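Q: Here's a chain of 165 amino acids. Please give me its 3D structure as tokens.
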Amino acid sequence: MTVEEFEEFYAQTVTRLTGQLYVMVGDLHEAQDVVQEAFVRGWSRRRQLDWDGRPEAWIRTVAWRLAVSRWRFRRRTADAWRHRGVPPPVEGPDPEQVVLVEALRELPAQQRRTLALHYLCDLTVEQIARETGLSASTVKTHLVRGRSALARRLHDPRIEEVPGA
């Protein structure tokens, strides 16, 4: 099946197949998702979709199998949660964490990434340089500028410096 034939096949059958899967699974959004995924898989196999002249049946079968697979996954997940019990309550983030996250969001992406790699992942300047493709001096610059920007953003106006202290 050529690209043009596949595009025409898609245009002629996607609505019908989505309707058929909707009836089978009972959820329109799920039907749309599995049909689209089946077409994506069919696209990579479009040269073999001429089998017996039944490419629509192949797409429908793949979509159905995807839906069943999703049901099984959801059922296993629900069973696991049921066996495990209710998860313990999780406390909300500290106000300081929220302020830090907001301050980090205001940094340029490269500074934020560099700070995260250094402070959260415990990578050295050289390791960060290798991972990001930046020079070591650029990594150092990002660290200095990022720390400086965070210090300015995280300044607590309630704390006043005492002159001469």
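Q: Can you summarize the key feature?
A: The chain has a mean pLDDT of 83.
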